[in-house]
Specification:
heterodimer, A: 105 residues, mainly alpha, 6 helices, B: 422 residues, alpha/beta, 7-stranded mixed beta sheet, 4-stranded parallel beta sheet, 24 strands
Chain lengths: 105, 422
């Protein structure tokens, strides 16, 4: 048991050392952009249990794009999101929506 | 799936280290982070995450637990406990493989790319992230350092033991007493913080010590953040309990009489005196010569937060010379942490640094136990200005205090603690 565990550690170590450091630049930049939501919506859009702030992980990109547009034009009332949504271009919103759509809930 | 196996690998490696009795602190790390506040802890975690757990990170932080400045004013109001705002650092190790060196850095050698710890060991880095918060300019208020060391006149502007001690002073104060809060000239950490604190103490007095008074003695001419919102609430709810006096720049305290003296105004004697001195970049940034602006704040290249005076040394959080409209806040430091993490990971991976980083800030203030107001902003890097600029048309403040924002404020805290530390 112990022996096998150490062997798998050894293999993992080898794997870690040979793998590439980061994704391509665009993926990294999109991830950093989506991370600006995480302060309130949790890392990778996963909120703490019972959070009044909704999680974004796994959200349909269409839904998110529509909600952000509704925050921007005022058709969806909000406490802060109408002010924050206006800070992002439509292209940035699309990138963020695509990122969270690919995160498992 | 892939990410999970990486986590397991890095956690397993950490375990192996302790099993075979390796030193806890390695002598070499790709990234060393100084300071485990909102900026540093976030940077450490996100360098690990954004590198898919490929880049080793050592976080040098002397404490076992993170104590949050945001929400700490509610401990003074009696609505939260110090335990409610405390989170252990241990999760950064167990969940993200961050190596926690429980120590403080005494020396940065940017030429040799090493940091020396108080315990004597030296760590070589490829990239250094400096996030030491603020330190106090004790010389700005004569007599304060000794009175503070004696536990008599507190600042309580770093959450922790002083928060608890100030709450005890307020509890011990007889009804009919005066709590005086001295506010330094801007810029300082957490612009609306003093006014939230005064509101919290006023709320406590109103319920428990109705003959007592809160005096805000502000070096600035007026309330520096969310002014109209605070002043309207005070007029409607704390009339006779809370008084604001501008242009009161503290220059000295007399511990014998618990009196604060000002540049131009009359002395004020108080039952509980809470003096917040002026602030500068954290002492390690000062000592390392990184605070190149007025020997007080650190100028950085905002694209990557790299210091203007030291290569491969990145400074984030309250120590940084702020861009227009950029507050020294926990939320902002967390935002800095992610921009610097992405930049450092890109540079160490041979990738282009994000040409358009973004920052957000949302700052909630509790005016009593339930009602909250906020200020929010979004900042975009503009390459022609080489600076972060608030996005036109974005951001703003609350129309007025609300309980709904109170719910969001507490959930903001829980989620940002998780984003920073879990």
């Amino acid at each position: 048991m112990k022996k096998r565990w150490f062997l798998s550690l050894f293999l993992l170590t080898g794997f870690v050392q040979s793998a590439a450091l980061a994704q391509d630049a665009n993926a990294l930049h999109a991830r950093a952009l989506a991370a600006t939501c995480a302060n309130c919506h949790g890392t990778d859009g996963r909120t703490v249990e019972g959070s009044a702030v909704p999680p974004l992980a796994g959200m349909s990109p269409d839904y998110m794009v529509k909600q952000m547009a509704a925050f921007k034009n005022g058709s969806r009332p909000a406490t802060v999101m109408h002010q924050l949504a206006k800070g992002y271009t439509d292209q940035q919103v699309a990138l963020v929506a695509a990122y969270f759509a690919n995160i498992k809930r | 799936m892939k990410r999970r196996s990486f986590v397991q690998a890095s956690v397993a490696l950490g375990t192996l280290g302790s099993l075979v009795g390796c030193a806890t602190i390695p002598d070499k790390a790709k990234v060393v982070v100084i300071g485990g506040g909102y900026g540093g802890a976030t940077a450490a975690k996100y360098v690990r995450m954004m590198s898919n757990y490929m880049i080793d990170v050592v976080l040098v932080e002397p404490n076992d637990n993170f104590v949050s400045c945001p929400i700490s004013n509610l401990v003074l109001g009696g609505y939260k406990s110090i335990g409610d705002i405390t989170t252990p650092y241990d999760n950064l190790r167990s969940k993200h493989g961050v190596i926690h060196a429980k120590d403080r850095v005494t020396r940065i050698d940017a030429a040799k790319k090493t940091v020396t710890l108080a315990g004597g060991s030296t760590i070589t880095y490829d990239k250094l992230i400096v996030s030491p918060g603020v330190d106090f300019m004790w010389g700005s208020v004569e007599g304060l350092q000794a009175a503070n060391a004696a536990g008599q006149i507190l600042h309580s502007w770093k959450a922790g033991p002083e928060t608890v001690a100030l709450r005890k002073q307020l509890e011990a104060m007889p009804d009919g007493g005066v709590y005086a809060l001295s506010v330094p000239l801007a810029p300082y950490r957490c612009p609306p913080g003093p006014y939230e604190r005064a509101s919290q103490v006023a709320s406590y007095f109103k319920t428990h010590k109705p003959r007592s008074k809160v005096l805000i003695l502000d070096a600035n001419p007026d309330v520096t953040s969310k002014g109209p919102l605070f002043k309207k609430f005070w007029a409607e709810n704390y009339k006779g309990t809370l008084e604001f006096r501008g242009n009161h720049k503290a220059v000295a305290v007399d511990a014998k009489t618990n009196t604060v003296k000002f540049e131009t105004a009359d002395d004020v004697k108080a039952s509980v005196l809470n003096v917040i001195p002026s602030m500068s970049a954290g002492s390690i940034a000062m000592d390392a010569g990184l605070a190149n602006v007025n020997n007080r704040w650190c100028a950085v290249d905002y694209l990557s937060f790299e210091s203007k005076v030291a290569r491969d040394v990145h400074v984030i959080g309250d120590s940084v010379l702020a861009s227009p409209g950029m507050p020294k806040s926990g939320h902002m430091a967390n935002s800095h942490g992610k921009v610097v993490a992405a930049a450092v990971v890109a540079q160490l991976s041979g990738l282009a640094v994000n040409p358009q980083p973004m920052l957000t800030n949302t700052c909630y203030s509790f005016v009593n136990d339930k009602l909250v107001v906020h200020v929010a902003s979004v900042h975009r890097y503009e390459s022609d200005k080489k600076d972060f600029i608030p996005v036109a048309g974005s951001g703003g403040v609350s129309p007025g205090p609300s309980e709904l924002e109170g719910v969001y404020a507490w959930n903001w805290a829980r989620n940002i603690w998780s984003d920073t530390l879990l």
